[in-house]
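We modelled the chain as a single entity of 111 amino acids. Its sequence is:
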Amino acid sequence: MTSYATITAAVLSRDEETMLIALDESGTPLNEDLLDEARDKGMTFAGMFGFGVINGVARCKAQSPDDVPAMISAMPAFIEYVRERLAPKPVGDSVAWCESIFKLEDPRDRN
């Protein structure tokens, strides 16, 4: 994948089963246990997905033409992974507490 892909994942497959392995910026799997599970099942590398957060460009690169069906079947999992990564994170109570301070009556206004 090119450098604009800030969310990346590898796809491993065997027969009709596929597994999405999320990668960090350096290409290292985020979950080594998942990678070990795929290896235990005899899965092989089928290709990569990438999504550029800044420019919104998505890219799919199959290892070979024979791997295209595996990449297509893994696409919904990658879309869900990107959606989860881009979803706003829930804010803590501190924001609500700060907003409540501004709603308090100013004692100087009582006079």
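As a brief sanity check on the tokenised model: The chain has one domain: 7-110. The first strand starts at residue 7 and ends at 14.
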